[in-house]
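Priority: medium. Attachment 1 of 2:
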C-alpha cells in the first residue's frame, strides 16, 4: 500500500513504540528499505513524538559501515516514521539458536570478526561529535545479540541506538526499562554513572557467548541474575571451546573485567586487539557470507524469492508471502496497561536438547531455553 513516497510491502516486526515495514520507493527505484512507523496511540503525546524524532536525528548522524544506515525522518497522514536501509539476514540471537539446533558453533575466526565489527561501530558512536563539534557522549546501553544483524552478504550491523544516552536531552524513561539484565555491565546493574566502557563489557559478553554457545550470565530469578552480573565471575572461553587460544581468552576476560579500570578503556582498543588476531587467522569476510547462507539455506532462498516478488509487484497488489516476521529490529516487546512502559518478553520458540560440539566440547546450550523464559 502507498505510504508517502514509499510502498509498504509487508510487516517485519511490531513493538511497543513502532511497527517496522519492508518498503520500496514509489519513484521506481528497486532498492528496499525498512520503514519504522510510530504507533498512533503514542503520537497523541508530544513527548513521545519528540523522543521518536530525537532517535531518528541521532541515528542519521551514525554513518558507519557497522551501524544500520538511517535515511530520513518524516510524517505522512499523521504517522511519524523513520526510514532505514533494509538488511536481509538474521540477528545474532537467531544465529546462536540455529547453531545450537544444528549442533555446531560459530567458527572462532567468524566470532572474532563479528565482535571486532561490533566494537568498531560502538567506538564510532562513542566518539561522535555534534554539529557544533562538541562530543555527544553517546552510550548505547543496550548492546545485545538481538541488536546485532548479520546479513546474508556477510555484513555486521548494530541496529538499535534508540535508547542511547546522549547530551541531546534524551529521556531514559523507556530506555532503562528496555535494557536486558543479561547483557548489562556491573556498574549498570548498580545504577552507577555510565560511559563507553559499559558497552565494551556488553560486547565482551557477546564475544564470550559466540565462542562458547553458552549464556554467560543466567539465574532463576531477576535478583539471582543481577547478582551474577554484579560479581562478574567469568570463566575463560577456552573452558568450553578448545579452539579458543590463550590470546583470545585474555582479550575476552579483559573486556569483561568487573572493575572498569581493568577493562578496555574504549571500544577501539578492543577492536584493534581482535583485528590483530583476525590477521593471524587469514580470515576473509566472504567466509561469513558463506556461513550465513549455509546456516540459513532455506531462509536465504525464501528471502531472495520474497524480495523479487515484492519488487516486481504492481501497486495495490498484495503478494501471498507466507513468512514469519524477520525481526530486523529489536522490537520484541508487549504493551502493558501503562502505555509509557515497554517490557521485553521472550520468544516462545521451544528449546532443543543440549548439543555436543566439536572435539568433544559439551556446551549446555542455554540458547534454546532462553526463548522459553518467562517475562
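Attachment 2 of 2:
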Amino acid at each position: 500500500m502507498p505510504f508517502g513516497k514509499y510502498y509498504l510491502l509487508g510487516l517485519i516486526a511490531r513493538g511497543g513504540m513502532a511497527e517496522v515495514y519492508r518498503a520500496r520507493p514509489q519513484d521506481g527505484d528497486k532498492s528496499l528499505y525498512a520503514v519504522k512507523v510510530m504507533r498512533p496511540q503514542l503520537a497523541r503525546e508530544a513527548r513521545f513524538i519528540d523522543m521518536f524524532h530525537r532517535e531518528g536525528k541521532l541515528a542519521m548522524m551514525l554513518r558507519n559501515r557497522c551501524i544500520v544506515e538511517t535515511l530520513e525522518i518524516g510524517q505522512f497522514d499523521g504517522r511519524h516514521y523513520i526510514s532505514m536501509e533494509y538488511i536481509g539476514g538474521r540477528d545474532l540471537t537467531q544465529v546462536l539458536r540455529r547453531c545450537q539446533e544444528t549442533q555446531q558453533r560459530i567458527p572462532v575466526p567468524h566470532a572474532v570478526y563479528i565482535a571486532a565489527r561490533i566494537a568498531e561501530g560502538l567506538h564510532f558512536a562513542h566518539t561522535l561529535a555534534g554539529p557544533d563539534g562538541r562530543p555527544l557522549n553517546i552510550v548505547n546501553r543496550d548492546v545485545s545479540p538481538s541488536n546485532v544483524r548479520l546479513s546474508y552478504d556477510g555484513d555486521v550491523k548494530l541496529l538499535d541506538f534508540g535508547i542511547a544516552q546522549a547530551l541531546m536531552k534524551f529521556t531514559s524513561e523507556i530506555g532503562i526499562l528496555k535494557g536486558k539484565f543479561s547483557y548489562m555491565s556491573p556498574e549498570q546493574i548498580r545504577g552507577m554513572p555510565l560511559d563507553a566502557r559499559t558497552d565494551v563489557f556488553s560486547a565482551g559478553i557477546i564475544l564470550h557467548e559466540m565462542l562458547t554457545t553458552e549464556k554467560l550470565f543466567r539465574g532463576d530469578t531477576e535478583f539471582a541474575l543481577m547478582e551474577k552480573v554484579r560479581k562478574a565471575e567469568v570463566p575463560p572461553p577456552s573452558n568450553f571451546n578448545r579452539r579458543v587460544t590463550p590470546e583470545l581468552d585474555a582479550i575476552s576476560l579483559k573486556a569483561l573485567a568487573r572493575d572498569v579500570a581493568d577493562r578496555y578503556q574504549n571500544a577501539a582498543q578492543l577492536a584493534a586487539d581482535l583485528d590483530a588476531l583476525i590477521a593471524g587467522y587469514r580470515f576473509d569476510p566472504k567466509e561469513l557470507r558463506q556461513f550465513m547462507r549455509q546456516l540459513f539455506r532455506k531462509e536465504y532462498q525464501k528471502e531472495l524469492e520474497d524480495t523479487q516478488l515484492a519488487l516486481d509487484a504492481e501497486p495495490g497488489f498484495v503478494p501471498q508471502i507466507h513468512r514469519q516476521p524477520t525481526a530486523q529490529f529489536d522490537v520484541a516487546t508487549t504493551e502493558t496497561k501503562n502505555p509509557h512502559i515497554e517490557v521485553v518478553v521472550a520468544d516462545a520458540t521451544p528449546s532443543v536438547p543440549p548439543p555436543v560440539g566439536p572435539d568433544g566440547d559439551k556446551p549446555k546450550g542455554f540458547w534454546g531455553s532462553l526463548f522459553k523464559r518467562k517475562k
